[in-house]
């Protein structure tokens, strides 16, 4: 049934005279199983918005429905919401604190009051999902690389078996390989498990590659909402918001202007390669 936001607004600091709203009148509907990329300049309200989704922040105005239930209704089970909507913060490695990787991933299911067997089974399953084999279980989180730490943090949330996984810039500061490994895994879970994913990202390449849909924020407002192809057609307007389209989009636009018969819907390197190769082999003018 998904997540439905109706006219969400939020102001930090209890709305004092000088407070600027961090979110203004944001509405959207995210169906189950969708992979959503959330983009916007720094300070546009992305982190504020996602903290609403599992009840960490309560909207100053507006309504939020998760699986058809109004989460602001009296008696709503916020604890259950936090397991249903799993949130991985930016730089989650700062929150790894248990003695070893396995204990760390057990932390969430332990808090859910599950049996020891169930806790351990979930931890194993979650570590498998993020591609960390048994040889990692007894390692201290501090012995791991940046990408491995992120994966442990994601496993800690997956072990609660959420329906929705929200990731706040999970690849910031990682090398390209670590980045692709994490996002490939997440896409795989989205695909095979029907997990809804909301990915906050600075990388237009990443959201073009992985997301079914993009929400673009600017100054606390939702500015664009559509498939990556629809949204990146507005690259000039995105630039005015301090954003850009994937680099390959600019190359394709240039080639189109030079007369090459290319679609204006190309947003990934793989698509550009597939469109260009036959033209180059055919000796098309450029
Ligand atoms: P983003 O994640 O897109 O960078 P944020 O949601 O962090 O944006 O910030 C949105 C706005 O809210 C910014 O103007 C930011 O300065 C402000 N803000 C964020 N967190 C706090 C906070 N804890 N207290 C006061 N203002 C905040
Ligand atoms: Mg942020």
TrEMBL record:
Which top-level group of life is the source organism from? Bacteria
The terms describing its cellular component in GO are: ATP-binding cassette (ABC) transporter complex
> EC number(s) for this protein?
7.-.-.-
Query: Which top EC class is named for this enzyme in its record?
Result: translocase
Cited Pfam families: ABC_tran
* One of the record's GO molecular function terms: ATPase-coupled transmembrane transporter activity
Statement: the UniProt record of this protein carries the keyword Nucleotide-binding: yes
Under SMART domains, the record lists: AAA
Q: Which InterPro entries has this protein been placed in?
A: AAA+_ATPase, ABC_transporter-like_ATP-bd, ABC_transporter-like_CS, ABC_transpr_CbiO/EcfA_su, ECF_ABC_transporter_ATP-bd, EcfA2, P-loop_NTPase
Q: Which SUPFAM superfamilies match?
A: P-loop containing nucleoside triphosphate hydrolases (SSF52540)
Q: How does it sit in the membrane?
A: Peripheral membrane protein
Name the keywords, alphabetized.
Answer: ATP-binding, Cell membrane, Membrane, Nucleotide-binding, Translocase, Transport
Reply yes or no: does the keyword Ribosomal protein apply. Answer: no
Instruction: Describe the location of the ABC transporter domain by residue ranges.
Output: 3-244
Main localization, broad class:
membrane
| Localization | Cell membrane
> What does the subunit comment say?
Forms a stable energy-coupling factor (ECF) transporter complex composed of 2 membrane-embedded substrate-binding proteins (S component), 2 ATP-binding proteins (A component) and 2 transmembrane proteins (T component).
Q: Which family does the record assign?
A: Belongs to the ABC transporter superfamily. Energy-coupling factor EcfA family.
- PANTHER family noted in UniProt: ENERGY-COUPLING FACTOR TRANSPORTER ATP-BINDING PROTEIN ECFA2 (PTHR43553:SF27), HEAVY METAL TRANSPORTER (PTHR43553)
**Known function:** ATP-binding (A) component of a common energy-coupling factor (ECF) ABC-transporter complex.
**Name listed for the protein in its UniProt record:** Energy-coupling factor transporter ATP-binding protein EcfA2
**Which organism does this record belong to?**
Stomatobaculum longum
């Amino acid at each position: 049934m998904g997540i439905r936001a109706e006219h969400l607004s939020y102001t930090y600091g209890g709305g004092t005279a000088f407070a600027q709203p961090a979110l203004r009148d944001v509405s959207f509907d995210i169906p189950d199983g969708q992979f959503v990329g959330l983009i916007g300049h720094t300070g546009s309200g992305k982190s504020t918005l996602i903290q609403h989704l599992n009840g960490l922040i309560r909207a100053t105005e507006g309504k939020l429905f998760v699986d058809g239930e109004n989460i602001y209704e009296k008696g709503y089970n916020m604890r259950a919401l936090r397991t249903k909507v799993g949130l991985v913060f930016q730089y989650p490695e700062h929150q790894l604190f248990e003695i070893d990787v396995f204990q760390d991933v057990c932390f969430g299911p332990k808090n859910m009051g599950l049996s020891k067997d169930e806790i351990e089974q979930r931890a194993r399953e979650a570590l498998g999902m993020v591609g960390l084999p048994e040889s990692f279980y007894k390692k201290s989180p501090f012995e791991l690389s940046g990408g491995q730490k992120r994966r442990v943090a994601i496993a800690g949330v997956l072990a609660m078996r959420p329906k929705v996984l929200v990731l706040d810039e999970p690849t910031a500061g990682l090398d390209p390989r670590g980045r692709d490994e994490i996002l490939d895994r997440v896409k795989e879970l989205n695909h095979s498990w029907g997990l809804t994913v909301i990915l906050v990202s600075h990388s237009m390449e990443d959201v073009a590659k992985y997301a079914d849909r993009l929400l673009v924020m600017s100054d606390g407002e939702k500015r664009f909402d559509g498939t990556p192809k629809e949204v990146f057609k507005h690259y000039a307007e995105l630039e005015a918001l301090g954003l850009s389209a994937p680099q390959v989009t600019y190359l394709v636009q240039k080639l189109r202007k030079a007369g090459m018969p290319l679609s204006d819907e190309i947003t990934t390197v793989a698509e550009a390669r597939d469109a260009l190769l036959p033209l180059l082999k055919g000796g098309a003018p450029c």
